[in-house]
Amino acid sequence: MTQMKVLISGGGIAGNALAFWLSKLGHDVTVVEWFPNLRTTGLQLDLRGHGIEVMKRMGLEQDFRTRMAPEQGLQIVNSAGKRRAFFPANRSGKGLQSFTTDWEIMRGDLCRLLYDHSKDRTKYIFGTSVESFEEKDDGIEVRLSNGNMNKYDLLVGADGQGSRTRRMMLGQDGSDGLHPLHGVYIAYFIMPRPKKEDEEYLATVYTATGRRAMMIRRHNPDEVQVYLMCKNDSEQLKKVRKGDINEEKKILAEIFKDAGWHTEEILRSMMVADDFYLEHLGLVKLDSWSRGRITLLGDAAYCPTASTGMGTTSALVGAYVLAGEIGRHCKDGTNTEDGLTAALKAYDEKFRPFMDQVQKGISEDSGAWGSMMPSTAFGIGVMNFLMGMAALLRLNIIAEWFLKEGVKWDLPEYEEILRAQGVKEGSRLPTRTY
After folding, report:
1. Per-residue pLDDT tens for 107-137?
2. Hey, how many other C-beta atoms are within 10 angstroms of the C-beta on 297?
3. Can you say whether the dihedral through the CA atoms of 277, 280, 286, 292 is positive or negative?
4. What are phi and psi of 34, to 5 degrees?
5. How much is the pTM?
6. How distant is the alpha carbon of residue 240 from its chain centre?
7. d(Cα 215, Cα 16) in Å, to the nearest integer?
8. How far is it, in rounded angstroms, from Cα 90 to Cα 97?
9. C-beta of residue 309 within 8 angstroms of C-beta of residue 405
């Protein structure tokens, strides 16, 4: 196989997963990450469907399981804290996962897992980002923020929903591919709360009037994760400068004031939280994920929003397909530019049907932002009753109606990846029943 020099912008889940595969295939891989060290912050993630199968093909299932979050299920409560419905995790290994999967993990732990299994074959540069790039006849010349300049065969933007690489690739003309969901926001932070003696490891959701909802998820004995979700036309939210954390906190405190349940405790913790992050949910949709020697991966290319439950899975599966197509098309004796052109075209053609299904129908009026966020006390009561009936009948309606795990698509097998993983040709790779 022709060895290529590849630069990946973004040392998160998608970038590190791609580094794992490309370095396994023998390529010279560098990852640049603007954060000063491996960014192991962030809240809980999960794997679903094809993402589970990719983790198994990486050979990392056992290591993943040693780092899993211990969540047992999701409960829905009313303002008095009384349970109205409970949906346990699906531990059967068959069918769709529930809201809580059998593959829960904290973002930082998954990022560390992928880093640990790629760092010996990959050059990681922290505190640095891509400043600019220019395509040449024999490669793409990239200038980094630390002043270094080098030439690569391929530049991969894996730098998230607000990808700077994507904006530079598309230029100043037209849309940058980000389509915000009107009025839909989620804030995240960690709140100290010691575990009570009889308390379980659960996700707990409370819905308040005015299209407001809160969720807390216990992941260790000392802390819980907090999610504040709202659908709100606030002009202040629209106009606040992204990253102005103090102002964002003040606006949310006003929106959630008098919401009931544990609101006062949650808002007090929010005001002093040092890991607070506010996200305006949005989809990333592009006609093409590549241009010349530049391609995009993960949220930078096809962010599906948190409401699909498929962000992490999409990143892992996308990295696997991109690496597999590079392995298939960039062989010894093949012109590097021709091989890359064919590989990037195949990556788009092979993986786009998957992402089209994941993103289909996502809007500010669908899924959790529609029927699961009623505005009145009566609507909330009806929703809680129906959720309770579904739980009683053991109907997995959250997965079937709101999440997007049930994608009808075949995960490809790549001979080059089989060989790199030491699997004998003709042996069947791990599969899972959906």
Report:
1. 999 999 999 999 999 999 999 999 999 999 8
2. 30
3. negative
4. -65, -30
5. 0.93
6. 24
7. 29
8. 5
9. yes
